[in-house]
Specification:
Blueprint (H helix, E strand, L loop, with lengths): L2 H20 L2 H17 L1 H19 L7 H25 L2 H23 L9 H31 L23 E3 L4 E3 L6 E3 L13 H15 L9 H13 L10 H11 L8 H9 L8 H21 L10 H11 L15 H18 L9
Antiparallel strand pairs: 1-2, 2-3
InterPro entries: Poxvirus_VLTF3 (IPR007031)
Keywords: Coiled coil
Pfam families: Pox_VLTF3
Length: about 375
């Protein structure tokens, strides 16, 4: 372990200790509620900023035929600001963030305040010695309960554990089989030995975890969902846009509304910009202002739930020695097939090598059989 890593770890420990000493669940909860209120109070200011941005974009579009690369970059930044403000307004108007917060933490907040309110109802015992002994025990138990609730609460809102946990004190049962799951440190998960169901955990101790644990896989999967909907704002160098525009002019494509994934991929490939394939929808959106593909929030949850279900069977059916997970593009393509979202299939590609595609299909077929899903062959 390097000196820098040790320092970072020490800083992290100090930060956690500082949180424990200065924060309580009640204090943090009130801070978050105050922040929600401030967002609602600023909604009028945001609306004025949004109108100003829309006017700037409209004025720029009047001179679109004379756009330079700098103009495109300015317009792209304005569109990003507009998207961010619209998303913020939508979240505030519909209370999305607030509902999401209570959805994540509501049960813990209720337990915390019930525990706090019960502190005022402690009955005195007739025997003073019993009273003193019982009170000390009760306070100790309540302090532990509050600490556990605050630890769970902080983990849900910040993604960080305040109390170290190596996973050995937890017992998990498979809902389907009603059998105790086995803790597998190598994949940082509890695994049912009967049906293969996997439940990921985060271990805080210095234990060996695979380079691509289930926790990182689900994060990468979320990134793919964001990328194809152009929700991210990647830094695309000016020369990339410049090269694309020159290539479009060569091909006599002046109407950017005609751009699609296939055309853009060919251009990027020709220019040697293969690393920007994952941002194709974002690039098209910035050049043409065409809306990127979208799925509902509920549909996103279904995608994520399906992804977590396939991780366990994949561990069982993958070829011996294989470390890389299935192609995320392949997985999303298959999910869209199962959910009959045919209009989204063009957003994802299957492997061109028939042997590798067949290899993926073999694993996917076994996964589908284990989950009682329909298997749809890629070779039609």
């Amino acid at each position: 372990m390097s000196f820098k890593v040790k320092i970072d770890a020490k800083k992290s420990e100090n930060n956690i200790q500082n949180i424990k000493e200065t924060q309580t669940l009640d204090k943090k909860h009130k801070e978050i509620i105050k922040n929600f209120k401030n967002q609602k109070d600023n909604i009028i200011i945001n609306a004025e900023e949004l109108l100003e941005l829309e006017n700037k974009i409209t004025e720029m579009d009047k001179l679109r035929d004379k756009f330079t690369i700098d103009d495109l970059n300015i317009r792209a930044k304005l569109l990003n600001q507009k998207d961010e403000l619209e998303t913020m307004q939508k979240n505030v108007n519909n209370n999305f963030n607030e509902m999401d917060y209570y959805d994540k933490t509501g049960d813990l907040i209720m337990q915390y305040y019930e525990l706090r309110d019960n502190d005022t109802n402690i009955k005195e015992s007739k025997n003073i010695l019993e009273y003193l002994g019982k009170k000390k025990a009760d306070i100790s138990i309540k302090d532990v309960n509050r600490s556990e609730l605050f630890n769970k609460y902080w983990k849900r809102i910040e993604g960080v554990r305040l109390n170290l946990d190596d996973g050995t004190k937890r017992i998990k049962y498979c809902i389907e089989c009603n059998l105790e799951k086995i803790l597998d440190y190598s994949i940082s998960s509890y695994v049912c030995q009967c049906c293969g169901d996997v439940e990921e955990i985060i271990l805080d101790e210095d234990r060996q975890i695979k380079d691509y644990s289930p926790y990182r896989r689900i994060n990468h999967f979320r990134e793919w969902l964001n990328q194809f909907q152009a929700k991210q704002s990647p830094e695309i160098p000016e020369e990339v846009y410049q090269g694309i525009i020159i290539e479009l002019n060569k091909n006599r494509i002046s109407n950017y509304n005609e751009l699609n994934k296939k055309k853009m991929k060919l251009i990027l490939k020709k220019l040697g910009y293969n690393s920007y394939y994952e941002h194709i929808h974002y690039i098209i959106n910035k050049l043409s202002n065409l809306p990127p593909p979208k799925i509902t929030r509920d549909m996103e949850k279904i995608f994520i739930k399906m992804f977590t279900k396939i991780e366990g069977p994949w561990e069982l059916y993958k070829q011996p020695g294989r470390k890389n997970f299935l192609s995320y593009s392949y997985v999303l393509y298959k999910f869209c097939e199962l959910l009959e979202l045919d209009h989204l299939l063009e957003c994802f590609t299957l492997h061109k090598d028939p042997n590798k595609l067949m290899e993926n299909d073999d694993i996917w077929k076994k996964i589908c059989q284990s989950l009682n899903w329909e298997f749809i062959c890629s070779f039609k």
